[in-house]
Write a structure and sequence with these properties.
Four copies of one chain form a homotetramer. By secondary structure, chain A is an alpha+beta fold. Chain A has three domains: 123 residues, Acyl-CoA dehydrogenase/oxidase, N-terminal domain (Butyryl-Coa Dehydrogenase, subunit A, domain 1, Orthogonal Bundle); 115 residues, Butyryl-CoA Dehydrogenase, subunit A, domain 2, CATH 2.40.110.10; 156 residues, Butyryl-CoA Dehydrogenase, subunit A, domain 3. Chain A contains twelve helices and nine strands. Chain A has a four-stranded antiparallel beta sheet, with no helix packed on it. Chain A has a three-stranded mixed beta sheet with strand order 1-4-5, with helices on one face. The two termini of chain A are 27 Å apart. Chains in contact: A-B, A-C, A-D, B-C, B-D, C-D. Chains B and D meet through loops of B and loops of D.
């Protein structure tokens, strides 16, 4: 259990923190000013300031840090990347600046690990270069997607083609003007072993039959220009070589993709929680009521202490999960990955909620990023499996472990 | 402790529930479709469907039910009105349909109880008729307004004029096209007894020196066309007769205004909580995962039970507060009013959060009113005094009571 | 929903409160001093001071107040008795002083309502007089008794006899020197409709085959001289007329017995919660740390406020349940009875825990009744159905209600 | 942040776990059977089985593992000892078996680190040999001891003597038949700098003026034969060389003593939490209700998951605190030490409470160690500073840190 960051990770942390402070945070207002606004994604545009920041980040070597594959990316372990992801979590726009934003990160990992050379050349290269964006199509509107076996969309093999049908939603990035490629997961062989039934298919967004239906607001925000959207697939016909790793390998790929992705999500959420706590403390010491700074009133001290404790615990658990993936593989880390997925978003939600409360009305407005932090954390309790599914998984593994030990 | 609704209240309940089901809920989509959208309140407009609904509600006698004054309003007690307010809480647009929406209700109460005949004629009459809207200017952006003594805005008496200066925010209704009048609270005599320092002044929105600065989003929503806004007062000069009840009487009026207002808020919030629970139960029984309806999975049954219990308890407490105001006056109900202000918004927030969780991604989108319900409940934990101030008040009164009993 | 106590109830409340303050509380030390101590119930004895108090309470007319049957008892409704039960909850020894202690109350109710004249003469009369004590044998050590259908003990009809076999535990009062009669619940006809399978049988404690196995400590305390015990029944043969109401009527009786019993339990627990809160407030104002009374430090004010709110809500819910039983019958009150059973013991537990915390080490010692209050409340979350079973019931009824309303 | 146990620690863990399983756990019934019972400590005796176990543990080299001083003890770092302390936490009698029980551990550390050669020879030697027991006298009954400056007992220097006066309680081990020495903390110079006012004095228990007043039950248990007691000091005169490190050095010593002690407490409490969770899981899978194992009912799975998560997080935090003490010293670990003191006892309490609930009545009886585990965890929230004081400390340090970072 050695979670100490490596020298390289430490050096990158310092560089990243400086870049964030000097370049990213100051650019936030310009970024928001350059957004077009509104529910209609057709008018969304990529702010130029983002492209400028990306260029500078890339030049500084702060690029594709998430990718453990040293050929295509930084070649950091999960434990090495984790503190970097936390730093990026301090600003909503930071992950994209460093080409480390979901879902592109997961998609790039999939392509780097499982993609054919042709798939890599066509899609991985531009993604690594940050010139295109991608989406991931898993969740469906008409079923409880928390149970993956409910998946109703199909990826049927017909001759040398695979035909996609169905409706997906909460595809992040769907509204982005640079979106070019979707990874679609669908049912291929209902008779196969449950974990061999589904395929992952690379589907260009302009393929005939793909239709972006609408963007979905999250607590009223569209997270422009990436957005989260609903997309229908109506007899979308693609060559068989668009299937990643071949028919029926979808779950196998998903397993490998989700572990590190959850580490990234959680570390970024911890960065968000730290930012909320930091804003909370600043407000608590700068405003006065009943003759005292807010920090000295009522439960506020306890709230600060409890958040400090919760964040520190959650970070250690996440580092433990990262270290376990690195040293023992995904399978050994299954419970830990579900554990952090339950704990961290809730800690971030609590931190944002407490910070909102101490800010009063200002907390729910846009004068502070707190309402947005709250929405972000809240959604994370649903994305990549809701809390309930992960608790279920943790309980199952714990009961199995206890049974083994009692034997 | 007789909380039984009177026959009149029962009859109105039934009528109201029918009107809500048959007229209001079906009109919600049209209402939203007729909104203009955006952050710029200058373009906001009152949907025609609302005016139509108001006309029908008024014709049906479902009008000004909140006003205990029988001359100007329905003449119901707080306990009689409470269940009606809960029914209105099921739809965001319902309160205005029945001319029972905050802050006009509180402003009308103030004018009915404390206004001079001239003030009543000029402002109360059109408010009762629903032809104009009003705002209430208390909270300030630059101080912790949870401590009312922090109030920095001034209402200075100069000769036969009162001069208003300062900046207020979270004035609900500030963006409404029909907004005509503001009730402004400011410091008049810093040397007076703390509860005799402030005045409430009627300030027409078009008075020179009044400037609407901006509208404030709540979790990204502007609650158009009423909105919540920031407004500055720069040497606004008004005749002395614009002061309600005379200089230095502001806190006296506030006390009388806030008690019933909190009952209304809480009962409406209970209606919102019931709606959230109802949506939760519907989703829990209509979606299936792991081979079972969601209601049968994990903690979902317990969540439903806990919400049922929490809502029922909170309602009884609110009815108790209403009954206490009616039978023993505001002063005897001080602790209870603070108690419900702590409990009810939190129950509504919990209900909305639980309902969101069971809806998955749909819960945070606009496909269901849950994100809006959540934002509404969340803000209520800050409005009219944050939870912290009310808990502080409850504790203070409890310690005083215990001391008396021990003596 | 008129929870106002009747004039008779109010008068009894006042009388009871005075008796408690002047007679019962001052006698507590003598009572404890007269106990024999230890795990061996054979040496337990009834303190003389209890018999003296009983005589005075009876003379004062404060006797059998729990019994709604006016022929045998006070003839008060549940709503009338509820506040009296709360007052008794302030002292552990009070209920017995007034002959209102469980499980004798429930057993007397059963006999008054369902007992034959012969059963009433033999057992009800001396119980009403307080000269004997009784036990109730339902829970079993070898199965999860939260599911009543798990019950394994048998009450088999053989000719004109009923034969009892099995093992029961948590029979309160089993160690009492005056214990004479047990009400035993067992399976009579496994083939019958599930709610017609069990019988309730009056079993004298000295019947051959009845064997008191041991007393069970609760957090180390035996609650002497009543105690809670384990008892085995080994071919205990009794005449058929010892079955109450006849074979197979056990559940029917249990339903009638448990509703009011839960009201009593909950109201007493609220009395216990009030006592804990009162001790908490006294300590909070009489001890000083960091230059301030404890009440002014950290979250202590909020804790006091939250307890005040929780107790008041729980009391209103319990009164609502009592009123519903009185006016609409047990069946209409099913959800409410389960609701209070979930809420009230938890509130009492929280109050005791918070009071312990503020007392520091003194709180867990015997210098204050707080550890005992805690244990009492904690056990109540298990007795008469654990929280889990009641939440399950509330959820089931709520889902059914929602379904009806949606239809 | 390398928490990996060293090879030596790993080897000791394995040895310890085996010894626990093969020797200690099987001896628990004999140990309890050899206790004398009751409130009167004069009759308490040390069970022979404990002395036998101690002899075997010592022979096996499992002795004084807690002592970082390699001359007198095992010479393990805090991080190395932490997992061993957790293992000992699985059985109440284990710590003494390995001569690693509080408060002797803390007292031995003090003597090893600060004791004069004469003090070490007279008291440390027999303590290390396990032939005598010691107590620590800090908390006082008449003041809020959570604020150390409230301490009223005095250690007055008069010529070549120090004179002790005052009353202490919650001195663990006070009732032990082998108790020989107390470490007494008292006020020496009220005018000195606040952290130089107090002295720690070695006071033989048979010194004239020392009077054991009584033993204090914890939730009804006396924790015989060690016990927790109240002791008065009435003009106890001792030679000046009984002061450790000299007059006014008490706080300095206390600081050094409490850090590692809290690590030990917390790791043992985690062992206790694991035992509770293990019992919970066993019950959840071995009992059936409503046709399913309890583990599959309602929230039980979620409860198991939440406990697994909470324990794992709390352990990582405790290891982090241990590692920080080892690598950066006590001062750098101040916040972490307070953090674990808040978190771990609460986790253990929650685990015990949840395990009690799933065991039903059996959970609060002595058939399982759960009620005792609960009491142990509950007391730990008060001992060594109540939660409140530690949260206060964490908040203070966090606000200071945030201020530094913002600057």
């Amino acid at each position: 259990m050695d979670f100490s960051p490596s020298e390289r990770s430490l050096a990158l942390s310092e560089q990243l923190r400086r870049f964030l402070r000097e370049e990213v945070i100051p650019a936030e207002p310009a970024y928001h000013a350059q957004l077009a606004g509104g529910a209609d994604w057709r008018g969304w545009r990529q702010p130029q300031v983002m492209e400028d920041l990306k260029a500078r980040a890339r030049a500084a070597g702060l690029w594709n840090l998430f990718l453990p594959d040293a050929t295509h990316g930084a070649g950091l372990t999960n434990a090495e990347y984790a503190p970097l992801a936390e730093i990026m979590g301090h600003s909503f726009i930071a992950p994209e600046v460093f080409n480390c934003n979901a879902p592109d990160t997961g998609n790039m990992e999939v392509l780097a690990q499982y993609g054919s050379p042709a798939q890599q050349q066509r899609w991985l290269e531009p993604l690594l270069a940050g010139t295109i964006r991608s989406g991931f199509c898993m969740t469906e509107p008409d079923v409880a997607s928390s149970d993956a076996t409910n998946m109703a969309a199909t990826a049927t093999v017909e001759g040398d083609e695979v035909v996609l049908n169905g409706r997906k939603w909460w595809t992040t990035g769907l509204g982005h003007p640079n979106l070019k490629i979707l990874i679609f997961m669908g049912l291929t062989d209902p008779q196969a072993d449950p974990y061999r039934r589904h395929s992952m298919v690379l589907c260009p967004v302009e393929a005939p039959g793909v239709r972006i239906e609408r963007m979905l607001p999250v607590f009223g925000n569209y997270d422009e220009p990436a957005g989260h959207g609903e997309v229908s697939f109506d007899n979308v016909r693609l060559p068989l070589d668009h299937i990643i790793l071949g028919p029926g390998r979808g779950f196998e790929i998903a397993q490998g993709r989700l572990g590190p992705g959850r580490i990234h999500h959680c570390m970024r959420a911890l960065g968000a929680a730290e930012r909320a706590l930091s804003l909370l403390c600043r407000r608590a010491t700068s405003r006065t009521a009943f003759g005292k700074p807010l920090a000295a009133l009522g439960s506020n001290g306890d709230i600060i202490a409890e958040l400090r404790i919760a964040i520190d615990q959650a970070r250690l658990l996440t580092l433990h999960a990262a270290w376990t993936i690195d040293t023992q593989g995904i399978k050994a880390a299954m419970s830990l990955i579900s554990q952090i997925k339950v704990v961290v978003p809730m800690v971030a939600q609590r931190a944002a909620d407490a910070a909102i409360q101490i800010h009063g009305g200002a907390g729910v407005s846009e004068d502070f990023p707190l309402a947005a932090l709250y929405a972000y954390a809240r959604v994370l309790r649903l994305a990549d499996g809701p809390d309930e599914v992960h608790r279920r998984q943790v309980a199952k593994l714990e009961l199995a472990r206890q049974k083994r030990e009692a034997a």
